[in-house]
Design brief:
It is built from 14 helices and no strands. It is mostly helical and 296 residues long. The chain has 2 domains: 134 residues, Cytochrome c-like domain (Cytochrome Bc1 Complex, Chain D, domain 2, Orthogonal Bundle); 88 residues, no CATH class. The protein is globular, with a radius of gyration of 23 Å. Bound molecules: heme C.
Length: 296
């Protein structure tokens, strides 16, 4: 009985496949793709050439669906999204020791480098034509909390219509923490990137230069004044200094990245390093630069 049913199903499937092929379908997809390869997390599946569905999704929905914001709005949307209840208040239970970093390095090379690049700067070969592009996670992970990172790596980008893959059924929890430890170590310069897929290493001078260029562009385009650019750079430096001295505290921060930024500004106001007006001005300048598409 069961066998017969299967046989009927299989012949039906073949008949359909043949009919589709006979209709002169313009591509080579008439060979049935096994379901397993659709869900497979391998790098090749993620490449734009093979991930046709994915590319279409990004080409269309992303551009039309996002309206005036466009890609620069995107990262901010993700950084200000509420962290789902299941992921709130997590703390990395895996010490970032040599063993963890070695495990993380391996996972990163196999699963992430193809899109995010060897150095974690978002410039891997399979990420080139993705829109939005893979995040420069070596850099962003320095100021993202455990909860946020664990959530985003577990659930991927479906909620935001991005190509970031959900890893919760691919990696164990420990493997996700290992890879989080690794990307943070990449960004802090504690480990050197493998030479594997391609992509730049994190470069603090280049980052600083890029930042200065963005502010200069803001002034040039009349989005901010020179005074505002100076104020922004000054507060930004103080935020950076705060981050380096409060790293552990920030990693276990409960809220999303936007809330983290706000709480750091509040802390600087409390210690008298900046005034409330400067904090407000910083946020306002940041918003204007993001809205003008100059900053992410
Ligand atoms: C198919 C390409 C692709 C692969 C493979 C991939 N990512 Fe991503 N990832 C993206 C894209 C695109 C984004 C930006 C959009 C988003 O945040 O959803 C992203 C975003 C992220 C973010 C959010 C960063 C931020 O600043 O908000 C993290 C964290 C991340 N990826 C980690 C990883 C890790 C770790 C791996 C491997 C285990 C990995 N990704 C594999 C494409 C990929």
């Amino acid at each position: 009985m069961k066998f017969q049913k299967t046989l009927i199903l299989v012949s039906l499937f073949i008949a359909i496949a043949v009919a589709v092929a006979a209709c002169g379908s313009p591509d080579e997809t008439s060979t049935p793709v096994p379901a397993s390869s659709v869900a497979a997390p391998t790098a090749s599946q993620a490449t734009p050439t093979m991930g046709q569905g994915q590319q279409e999704k990004h080409g269309n929905e992303q551009h039309h669906g996002q309206g005036m914001g466009g890609p620069p709005e995107g990262m901010r949307e993700r950084h200000s999204a509420p962290i789902p209840a299941d992921y709130q208040g997590l703390a990395d239970p895996v010490p970032a020791d040599e063993e963890s970093l070695a495990r993380g390095e391996k996972i990163y090379a196999q699963q992430c480098a193809t899109c995010h690049g060897d150095g974690g700067m978002g410039d891997g070969p399979a990420g080139q034509s993705l829109d939005p592009a893979p995040a420069p996670i070596a850099h962003t992970s320095q100021m993202l909390g455990d909860s946020y990172l664990f959530w985003r790596i577990s659930e991927g980008g479906a909620q935001f219509n991005t190509a970031m893959i959900p890893y919760k059924s691919i990696l164990s929890e420990q493997e996700i923490w290992d890879v989080i430890n690794y990307i943070r170590a990449l960004g802090s310069g504690q480990v050197q990137p493998r030479k594997n897929m391609g992509g730049e290493a994190m470069n603090p001078e280049a980052e600083a230069q890029m930042h200065a260029d963005m502010l200069a562009a803001g002034v040039e385009q009349g989005v901010i004044t020179q005074d505002e650019a100076d104020l922004f750079a000054d507060v930004h430096d103080k935020l950076d200094a705060y981050k380096t001295t409060h790293m552990d505290e920030l990693r276990s921060f409960m809220g999303n990245p936007e809330e983290m930024q706000k709480s750091m500004l509040d802390a600087l106001v409390k210690t008298g390093e900046i005034t409330q007006e400067q904090a407000d001005a910083f946020t306002d300048i940041h918003d204007r630069l993001v809205n003008a598409g100059i900053m992410q």
